[in-house]
Amino acid sequence: MDEVILAIDGGATKTAMTVQKRNGVVLFDGKGEGSNFQTVGADKVKEVLGSLLAEVRKVLPKMKVEIAVFALAGIDSKQDELVVRGIVEEVSRLHGLQASKLIIENDAEATMLGATGGKPGALLISGTGSIAYAHDAKGKIVRSGGWGHRAGDEGSGYWLGREVLRAIFRMEDGRGPETTLKREVLQELELDSVQALAGWLFASTYSVDNVASLSRVLSTCAEKGDGVAIGIMEEAADELALLVGAVLRKCELENVESDIYLNGGALINSEMLVNGLRNHVKTEFPLCQLITSTKSPIESIVARGWLELSG
Engineered SS bond to 211: which of 32, 58, 161, 255, CB 3.0-4.6 Å? Predict the structure, then answer.
């Protein structure tokens, strides 16, 4: 009988779950709402995971798997892990999930381990937020960033969007240079003035994801040669280089051949940002190479699970 894995990628706004055989046959793919307990609360996490496991039972009645990997955002400390473990074990008992091996860890960490295939390397994510992880393949795993949009997430989609807004307001006040960002953002949001843009920021529909979505407008303006937009992109590349540089040094990978995997919409969708980051890496870490990930996070999490069993 083929070995079976259950893998979960749980973020703040959405959760993906898959059940697959070792030969790659997919038994179940499902999606649900966010399952970061720090943002949605423990009860909501139980509801989301429980709903997905109930669907799994329809295709896997015995609910037996060789390994289950719960890769969830919000696991940032040993205490967080204990809280999430309690949630996972409760939901698993309720729905009869039996896993010979259970892994519960931060989603970015699991994605990194799967992407690098157990070799020394790093993962840099710049989506709505930003974070970097690295490991030396000897058991040392380190992290930099991931502190959230209120105090961190430099170089992320949200950070880019916020800088776009700042540039527009500075231009409007006469405190900053002219930029096409103003026209393009107002058009994108279907607004008629900068005053309306300020109102958009305080509307009930405001979200960090909405601000992060402005990074697409930024990329377009930068590619067309807007100096302000290019400057924001360059600063973002600087910040992301600091993130990944920190974890490489902590793992003593500065002079080790290793891969740095890139993920997240802000990176995947901006060649200019990736090129800026690549210039930093070539100069500071010549033995490292950037690889834009072609796998989704859930695919890397599945790979992380199989790696553990092969281990």
Answer: 161
Question: In CATH, what number is assigned to the domain containing residue 18?
Answer: 3.30.420.40
Residues 63 and 132 in one domain: no
Q: CB neighbours (10 Å) of residue 51?
A: 16
Tell me how many domains the chain contains: 2
Please, which pLDDT band fits residue 235 given cuts at 50, 70 and 90? very high
Where does residue 264 fall: left (phi above 0), alpha (psi -120 to 50 degrees), or beta otherwise? left
Q: How far apart are CA 117 and CA 303, in angstroms?
A: 7
The owner of tokens 């992060």 is 212
Beta-sheet pairing, 258-263 with 121-126: parallel
3-state class of 124 per DSSP? strand
Range of the domain at 37: 4-105
**98 & 135 share domain:** no
For the chain, state the CA radius of gyration: 21
- Residue 146 CA to residue 129 CA, distance in Å, equals 7
